[in-house]
Predict the 3D structure of the following.
Amino acid sequence: MEGRAHLQADLRAKPFLRVLEGETQNPPPIWLMRQAGRYLPEYREIRAKVPSFLEFCYAPALAAEATLQPIRRFGFDAAILFSDILVVPDALGQKVSFETNAGPRLEPILSDQDFAKLNDALDLARLSPVFETIERVKASLPAETALIGFCGAPWTVASYMIAGRGTPDQAPARLFAYRQPDLFQRVIDRLVAASIDYLARQIDAGVEAVQIFDSWAGVLPAAEFERWCLAPVQAIVAGLRLKHENARVIGFPKGIGPRLEGYASRTGVNALGLDSSIDPVWAARSFGKTLVLQGNLDPLALVAGGAALDEAVKSILRAFRDRPHIFNLGHGILPETPIRNVERLLDLVRRGS
Ligand code: CP3
């Protein structure tokens, strides 16, 4: 009872949560994907203290500081836990590292033998620094700011586990899924179970909503999309709600265009993250007001600034004015983004023009 009263009080104070519960707010709440990171000098300063990115993610004091930096500087309506989607394969026992300026490197899973080396379940002790980060952030977040947790969707995470690195089109994982569908299914099933555990523990630790990042959903044909993207995310949402009945979930399946409609209804997410290719007017018309929409400014418009930024922001605000909407980018903020453009964006959104 006490817990529920606490949740209600939080809800009233936090515009982001009110919108996630279906309210329309003008101006809409705003946060940005990858809002903590290299475009901020204060991030680069603390990042330099630890040689490896994974160590940085597992250092609660530093990760909490990185989470809070964009809140202090810009006053976003939500903070997102500072971590990475690849801590899940790491906690399943796969070797994961991040090379400076080269992105992630994993020891690829290519055979039954490689798969057999993984842990059956997530090593929650390995992830305990993440839960400690959440507790620390919660203790110093302003009363009006919500905290978002996250994981990668199974398809996106698996695509790195199979290729061992980022690729332009995730061809290695797509080929693997055609050639060894049974083994790939086992990788996906392991990730579904791990993601449910991981998100449930993040909620236990204090996050108020979770986002499932499916950055590579858009590269698959229809049947593969159904099997590797949609069904696993549906299973995660259902499994998470068995543990946390009222879990608030944002799905972000990047690049899937008109498949968004089936994705939203079948997965049962509370909110849908839209990438920048989606026409806001189409989206506002296509989805009922019980589904919250999030997005979808082009990260390059934010780099460019000026009239291009002003125009893009205005048309997004106009399209979503009469429905629950959370302002965001259509993908992560780019490292070269000028800080003054982020300030301008907040100004435009908060003035409602
Ligand atoms: O949004 C936030 O501010 C929270 C932190 C966050 C990071 N990664 C920090 C990070 C989140 C939510 C992610 C998600 C993530 N990680 C995704 C899905 C979203 C997306 O952008 O598509 C993916 C595919 C990854 C995997 C990953 N992590 C890659 C491909 C890279 C290298 C490319 C890059 O941007 O550097 C990372 C590294 C990473 N994750 C950095 C940060 C801040 C940069 C590393 C550094 O600071 O040294």
